[in-house]
Amino acid sequence: MHQVRTEEDLLTVRHAVRAATLRAGFSIVDQTRVVTAASELARNAYIHGGGGTVTIDHLMSRGTTGLRLTITDDGPGIADVGAALTDGFTTGAGLGHGLGGARRLMTDFELQTVPGRGTTVIATRWASR
């Protein structure tokens, strides 16, 4: 598990996820997808959730490898998940592609949020064949 409390932690998460994609044997395209999604999700936890954690799990199913990222924060939660997943929606100074973009980059994407109690995103990418 990796803590996300500082800007430096965001870089640590990127490096850890990149190393995990290499160990899983992901193609360069899949490596880029997963690292980009992890970066966006960790940054959201840091900026909007006041910090959080990132857990990386290696998966195997029917001979295919995968990585599951679980990003959790104890922030204010997301009041309107549908809007938050829409490109262009932002509550800050960003472009508003973070959550929706991360969802598109991963194979599976689950978002659990309770206003006032935080957000958890579970995103999985299976290696392309």
From TrEMBL:
Signal peptide positions on this chain: none
Q: Name one GO molecular function term.
A: ATP binding
Q: Which InterPro entries match?
A: HATPase_C_sf, HATPase_dom
Keyword Cell division in record: no
What domain of life does the native source organism fall in? Bacteria
Has keyword NAD?
Answer: no
Q: What SUPFAM superfamilies does the entry give?
A: ATPase domain of HSP90 chaperone/DNA topoisomerase II/histidine kinase
Q: Which UniProt keywords apply?
A: ATP-binding, Nucleotide-binding
Could you tell me which residue ranges the Histidine kinase/HSP90-like ATPase domain spans?
A: 7-124
- This protein is called ATP-binding protein
